[in-house]
Every structure is written in C-alpha cells, then in structure tokens.
Amino acid sequence: MKKVVIIGGGFAGAYAAQHLERDFDVTLIDLKDYFEFTPGILRTIVEPEHIKNIQVLHTHYLKRARFIRAEVKTVTPKYVLFDGKRVPYDYLLICSGSRYHTPFKEKRIVLSTRAEHLRQYYDQLCKAKDILIIGGGVVGVELAAEIATHCKKEKGRGKTITIAHAHDRFLTRNNQKAIDFAERFLTKHGVKIMYNERVMSHNGKTFITESGKKIKADLAFLCTGIQSNSGFMKKHFAKKLNEREQIEVNAFLQVEGSKNIFVCGDVNNSHEEKTAQSAEKQAMIAVENLYRLEQHSAHSTHPAQQSLVAYYPTKKPMVISLGKWCGIFVWGRFTWCGVLPGILKNLVEWKTMIQYR
Ligand SMILES: Cc1cc2nc3c(=O)[nH]c(=O)nc-3n(C[C@H](O)[C@H](O)[C@H](O)COP(=O)(O)OP(=O)(O)OC[C@H]3O[C@@H](n4cnc5c(N)ncnc54)[C@H](O)[C@@H]3O)c2cc1C
Question: What tens digit of pLDDT does each residue of 197-209 get?
Fold first, then answer.
C-alpha cells in the first residue's frame, strides 16, 4: 500500500484521512488529538458545555489510519520530520490550516485541557463588566452577538460590550444588506460599535487606539486576521511560499514541481474567502486527484496530470450567526436574514459532526 501522510486534522485533513484510509497506508499528524468544528467555538465562550458537541478524537473516527500527535517541523521531498523522527511518504497532503488568537484556536493541546481552558474564559466572562472585541470581521461580530444575547438571557445587563473596528464599515466583503442587519441587531442588543478605531496597545485594563482614544475593558478578545501554518516548508520549499506565507498551489492543488504533494484549506494561496467549506471542498478534489494519479500510474501510459480535476475558487454561501437563534445567509448579493439562517448554522454544525461520530 502506498504511504500517505497528512499534516493537520482540521476540516481538510480529517476529511482526507477518513476518505483515504481504506486504500492507502495513512498517517495523520496533528498538534491536537481531536477534530474541532471551529465555527462553533464562539458559542462555547458563553456555553462552555457546548464544546462536547463540536469535538471528536481523531482516533474515534479513523478506523485504519495511524494518528500521531506531534508538530511537523520540516517537510522534505521524501519525508516529514518531527521530534527527531522521519515519516516517509509516497503522497503528502498538507492541511495545516491557520493560526488564530486564543481561545478560538489553540496549539499543542489535548481534548480535556481544551475544555478546561474554555471554562476558564467563561468564568472570566461572567466576572467581566466591560468587554472589548477588537476587530469587526465575521468572528468579532458573531462573538459580540453570542455574548450580547447570552447576557440578555442571563440578565447580565450591567455589562458593556464594545467592538473596536479599524475601518469605517464592518463585515467587509459582505453586502450592505447583511452589514445593516448585523449592525441593527448588535445595536439593539446594546453593543457599542466604534468605527475607525484601531487598537494599538494596552496598559493593564486600558486599551489605546491609534487616534488616542482609551477604552476600559476587563476582558478583551482579539478577533483579527489569520496566519498560515507553513513554517515547516521554509527549509526545503521556501520558494513555494508567497508573501503571506501561504503555500502556492497549481489548479490541481499540487505544489508546482511536486506532483505528489497536495495542499488544501487555509494554508494554501487559493484566492477566496478562507472557510471551512472551501477547505473541505479542496480536500475532496485532492483526494480525487490522488486516486487518479494512482490509477494512471497503474494502467496508463498517458501523463497522469492530464486526468486530474481542477479546483476553481468560487464565492460560496456563508452563514453569519447572531446568537443562537438568528443569522444572516449571504451568497454574493443575495441575503436572507432572521431565524431560519440561524437554525441553518446549527444544522451545518450537526451535519459536519455526524460524519465523525
Ligand atoms: C473563530 C472562527 C470562526 C469561524 N467561523 C467560520 C464559519 O462560520 N464558517 C466557515 O466556513 N468558516 C469559519 N471559520 C474558518 C474555518 O474555521 C477555517 O477556514 C477552517 O478551519 C480551515 O480548515 P483547515 O482544515 O484548512 O485548517 P484548520 O481547521 O486550521 O486545521 C489545521 C490543523 O492543522 C494542525 N497543524 C497546524 N500546524 C501543524 C503542524 N506543524 N504539525 C501538525 N499539525 C499541525 C492544527 O492543529 C489543526 O488541527 C472560522 C474560523 C475561526 C477562527
């Protein structure tokens, strides 16, 4: 059996491991011992017990594949290296995704510790009077809505929730109808939105913006940009990294010049919104292409590349949740706001997790 090594067990890596393990000798290497439905993590900030609905151990859903909890430090054209060990591969799938601020994503962690950390954040949230959310992208807006709707329910009305956003409109890359709906929703729930205020530093509980404004907060959440997890490529594949440290891929999601290395999800340079569904869709294409390469090497004299399927980045539908029971479905110019999109987000979570149960 050919050896397939997969780096990262997020949306792309978990999908690939599950779909390749029947026909290949698969090794999944991940810093965490579990798959986590990242979009559901914001709910755990106000409902820490929700964590059990959105996590599953890799060893639970993998029936044949080997799982190793480790951080890959170096990728060479023949093997991957971690903790002084080498794992050779015939095919490599890089699905190492991106880093984000704690508590939303954490490194080198086991399932039980993760739940404990989230519980600690919840305790801090309960005690905090003034909460600051830095960044008004999708994560910042969803988090503000989770906290605001939860506090209303818990009658924690003494709290202030502020979003400090560096630009003059939030939820950029979304249409105006979606932006207006989110703004009305948050304002109605008592969230203060400060536009054109980039937080630059803090002194204890005082956060200072570029314009010199001071914002007092007992608890602050940083909800700004993602960073690619691609450091292990620097030694042997530095030229394949772009200025954002994303790994450059061709239309078939291969590293150019290395037909047996595929890269899926947040870590590659595909020009589109970095989302869970894009990561999973790319993993589908990479898995299909890996099978096609194998079939060709066994039965055909034609160059295998000609039979591969291309991945086309597209604008995909997106659901922005506003608390548990409200949301916005956006697909290009089409917008649908209210209870049903909110329920849809819960359904997506349920449907994703059921694949791994
Ligand atoms: C708070 C938040 C909310 C979000 N909400 C949504 C949403 O509502 N809808 C949506 O579609 N998308 C959402 N996203 C984006 C979505 O989560 C990502 O696009 C998606 O997780 C990318 O999947 P991935 O498989 O590429 O990488 P990831 O999910 O980042 O997984 C990468 C995996 O690789 C592992 N890893 C990294 N480096 C190494 C290494 N060196 N060695 C071994 N393992 C390694 C990590 O431990 C991790 O398990 C959200 C993201 C965040 C942070």
Answer: 999 999 999 999 9
